[in-house]
Amino acid sequence: MFNITTVLTPEIALAVLSLSLLAIGLLIPAGARKGMMPLTVFSLMGVLGYTLYDFFYGPEAAFLGGLYMHDQFAVYFKILFLAAALLVVLSSGGYVQKLPKHRGEFYSLLLMATLGMMLMAGAGELITMYVGLELMTISFYILVAYLAEDARSSEAGVKYLILGATSSAILLYGISLIYGLTGSTELLEIASKLSGNLTPASLLATVFILAGLGFKISLVPFHLWSPDIYEGAPTPVTAFLAIASKAAAFAVLIRVYLLTMNSQTFSATGQTLLFVLAAITMIVGNLIAIPQTNIKRLLAFSSIAQAGYLMVGIIAGGISGIKGVIFYAMIYVFANMGAFAVATLVAEKQGSSEIKDLSGFWHRSPLATVVMTASLLSLAGIPPLAGFVGKFYLFSAAMDQGNVAIAYIGFVMSMISVYYYLSVVKVMFLAEGDGLPEVPVHGAMKFTMVFTMLITIAIGLYPTPLAKMAIAAAQSLF
Amino acid sequence: MTALPTVSSMSMLLPFTLLAPLAAMLLIVFLPKEETKTIKIIAAMGMLVSLVLSLYAFLNYQWEPGGMQYTLTIPWVPDLGVNLALGVDGLSLPMLLLTNLIGFASIYASWNIDKRVKEFFVLLLILIAGVMGTFIARDLFIFFLFYEIVVIPIYIMVIIWGSTKRVTKEYAAMKLTIYLLIGSAFLLVGMVALYLAAGANGNPTFMFDQLSARQDLYSPAFQKVAFALMIVGFGSLISMFPFHSWSPDGYAGAPTAVSMIHAGVLKKIGGYGLIRLGIYVLPVGASFWAPYIATLAVISVLYAAFIALAQKDLKYVVGYSSVSHMGYVIIAVAALNPTAATGAVGMMFAHGVMAALFFSMIGFIYEKTHTRNIADLGGLAHQMPRLAIGFMIAGMASLGLPGTVNFITEFTIFMGVINVLPVHAILGIAGIIFTAVYILRTIANVLFGPRRAEWDHLTDIRGPELVPLVIFGFVIFFAGIFPNVLLGMIDSGVTSSGLAKVLETVSQAKIGGLF
Q: Where are the transmembrane segments (chain A) (predicted)?
């Protein structure tokens, strides 16, 4: 049998690690903190290894009376968050070294955010979910404003704080309405009590929860924060925000919205609502990405569009839809991480993130150019890269439910997205980068880039292992 | 389908054909970029291996039982029902051979490239392997995968090595890419719809033969919609009017090797897909849309030929002429009759060889004179007789001179079409007259006329530059004089794949329904 401590090992390990990094940062003199990144990396690798083992061989149960779930779905997302955290840490070594101050706390906060996400994925109850979400969000408030002297970073921090707090309030209002309606915060109980009767109050609660989570995944019309904050935040933080926090919100969306709130008779109307939201998210995200001149803003709009694609899987629902969402969320980590690693490199070496600063990148840094190209094309869904298979799962799941129109919008929009992804590629290959420095890639950054690219290609060519994991995770929900 | 890997005789022949250019590409990746000579030789060796293997496949193919041969099936993504299924029959084998002929020749047509040589050949070999993959795939998913692989290398090759004339190369590259990708978005929706319809009984598959065998699952309404989606997808690929406008701009912007491969084989994926997927899998949809397609095809033939008459740039002439010639292929497909289908595949082969020869010769002219403007050229036959021969052969093949393979295939097409669509056939044949006008006019203005002193410094093509001329010249006349080598093969494909039977039922239904 298992007891709660073995099941919670990854969470406990992360909490301990995060707090001890904080302590180490205080105890060790400022000059001798170079060891913090390797320490974080190796600890994360250990936790990730354990979590992988846990996915295949671990026990599966709800415990603490359904308060916390330990199923393959939750563990799948834990793998995703830990992998994303690991890659962000690996790619941010040089960047963090250049930070003016508070270098020690950076990794600690990153791990705190990861811990929050892991709680979100496992939460079987609304308060636990909310605590996890706030832990993640508050860590991000600090991380986004990390370059406090930089006007844009602190602007982004304040914006994120205000908007994030508002969205949390809306979410919390939705939760309190549900508690008032059902007398419970446990998902299973809510589902059974809500089923069948749609009241104005429960409708309001549902929409509020959708809006609160929609903010986190930057669903149009709750997306306006993301370009500014992506642009202002330190690049590794942007990467983590774009990749992992979005995935965490999708984990909650699946568990809370799809499996719990959808048990109401509301589902037909809800389907229309989601349909409209997904369609405008895909259209707005892709079309506004076209005129962007800053790589982080471009990736922000592209990630809005990607959220729209993921919503297609939510619309489809069922095992095939959920499988599509979590499969795509995983490959999205690697594709986006590759692109953000290059953006981090440019920010670190050239202190800028404009697309024109990538000029002549092919001569200055061939490896980074190839990685960027592969990552962007995977985001665009060009085979044989992983993004194609992911989109195929998502859209075929929707078409299987008869939602041909949304899949069609998705296909056309992803072809249009090729336009702006290719214009980045064009700048890198074609423009002459006269006067711009050589950008060599070394060490952990090189590893991150090559690793993400190899995974992106490998999953594209042979998706079966990851698909099997995703199916197992999706089935564990039912 | 959870079939175990099935092994037929020489099942590894096609994988090796496919992997040879990729192996060469990997070798090149690890070479220093200064070793340009070695890079070119390795690229050529890789393509030679592919060419020899596909020639062997062509000669060793058994016409009598026909059907898919050299098959290899490996379950790839079991939960989707994707199989890595390779194989060729009489329809795809000529296209495979054509790909390798053009691929091999395109290496030599790019022999004088001196800018970023390593990257050029890496991308070129990926491009060739991608095109090859579409023709040997027996699985729709794999087919599509290979098709999309080619789009991005083409984009990068055009923006780096392309040329800016009437439109900038960036514009040309983006236009080409967007057209093909939007087309493939339509195709993807059609493909997923087909896949879901075929998997309705809970046994998903992408295999062409399985999709075709599950006819009962597709309602006529579904077939019409799905076929319409495919028409847009494949139609923009084969540059059918009104989806053709990427083609002349794209070819004009692209470097020679890309124009050769694009006009020579890549385009043919459209025609091949229409036959393999459209008619074969969705015959009811095909017969519903056939009259409309035939009309659009006739417009393609005549309209593009008229525009070609007015062009000043050599590449635009050939670009529009290829739109016009593809119109014949589409008419033949729309005629829904076995003779015309044989002609269609034959025409794709013949046009591929001709277009590749044309583009390689234009590439050499441009390389030497730095102009493609017809008015600036003239009398080149004096200085460059061998190039003039190549240009003449391509021109004669283009207007369908008897003795060239193009004549035989055009003849076959019209033999098939005339009984079914007499008006279209006559209008199409009229198109040949316009073709003759613009081709002869171009040849006269470029090659003949008084000797011009400004071109006296030019050297004729020689050494490696002669390879495209020799290969394509040989194929054009050999297949023109012994057409049975080609058409017999295709005919066996049409018969043995069951296409003939499908066409027979469809055309009967059509006569009953429409007339």
A: 12-28, 35-53, 73-94, 106-123, 129-148, 160-181, 201-225, 237-258, 270-291, 298-319, 325-346, 367-393, 405-422, 443-462
What confidence tens digit (pLDDT) does each residue in B8-65 have? 567 888 999 999 999 999 999 888 888 888 999 999 999 999 999 999 999 888 888 8
B2 interface with A at CB cutoff 8 Å: no
Which of A383, A412, A464 shows the shortest C-beta gap to B78? A464
Tell whether the model's pLDDT for residue B303 goes beyond 70: yes
- The pLDDT tens digits of the residues spanning B251-266 come to 888 898 899 999 889 9
pTM of the model: 0.88
Structural domain count of chain A: 1
Task: Supply B358's token pair.
Answer: 């044309």
Considering only alpha carbons, which residue of chain B is nearest residue A383? B145
Q: Is the ipTM of this complex over 0.90?
A: no
| pLDDT at position B5 | 44
Average pLDDT for B177-205: 86
A403, part of any domain: yes
pLDDT (0 to 100) of residue A32: 60
- φ, ψ dihedrals at B239, nearest 5°: 55, 50
What angle do helix axes B117-136 and B151-161 make, rounded to 10 degrees? 150
Report chain A's terminal Cα–Cα distance, integer Å: 22
Looking at residue B218, what is its pLDDT? Answer: 86
Query: Tokens at residue B70, please?
Result: 């050299």
**Which range marks the domain in which residue A397 is found?**
264-477
What percentage of chain B's residues is helix, strand, coil (to nearest 5)? 75, 5, 20
Question: Is A132 a member of any domain?
Answer: no
Amino acid at position B268, single letter: K
Neighboring chain B residues of A411 at a CB cutoff of 8 Å: 185, 188-189
Q: Is-contact A221 A307, C-beta < 8 A?
A: no
| B146, B152, B230, best to mutate vs chain A, most A CBs in 10 Å | B152
DSSP letter string, A88-125:
HHHHHHHHHHT-SS-HHHHHHHHHHHHHHHHHHHHB-B
**Packing angle of the helix pair A126-144, A151-182 (nearest 10 deg):** 170
Report CA torsion sign: B269, B274, B276, B281.
positive
For chains A and B, what is the number of CB pairs under 8 angstroms?
77
CA B314 to the chain's CA centroid: 20
Residue A419 lies in a domain: yes
Residues A453 and A372: their CA atoms lie apart, in Å, by: 9
Determine the residue of chain A that is closest to B126 in CA distance.
A384
The mean predicted confidence, pLDDT, of chain B is: 87
pLDDT over 60 (residue B374): yes
Tell me how far CA of residue A463 lies from CA of A84, B77, B82, in angstroms. 19, 7, 11
Q: Per-domain residue ranges for chain B? A: 10-508
Rounded to the nearest angstrom, the minimum Cα separation between B198 and chain A is 11
Residues of B in contact with A395 (CB under 8 A): 188, 192
- Tell me: the pLDDT tens digits for A356-398? 888 888 888 889 999 999 999 999 988 888 999 999 999 988 8
Check CB contact under 8 Å for B193 and A399: yes
How far apart are the CA of B71 and the nearest CA of chain A, in angstroms? 20
Q: In this structure, is residue A293 part of a structural domain?
A: yes
A346: nearest Cα among A427, A419, A421 = A427
In chain A, the residue whose alpha carbon lies closest to the alpha carbon of B75 is A464
C-beta of residue B184 within 8 angstroms of C-beta of residue B238 = no
> Does A33 score more than 80 pLDDT?
no
In the predicted model, is pLDDT for residue B98 greater than 90?
Answer: yes
Taking residues B329-349, report their average pLDDT: 91
Nearest to B181 among A393, A415, A471 (CB): A415
Chain B interface mutation, best of A370, A415, A423, A429, highest count of B Cβ atoms under 10 Å = A415
DSSP class of residue B494?
H
Residue A5 has pLDDT above 80, yes or no: no
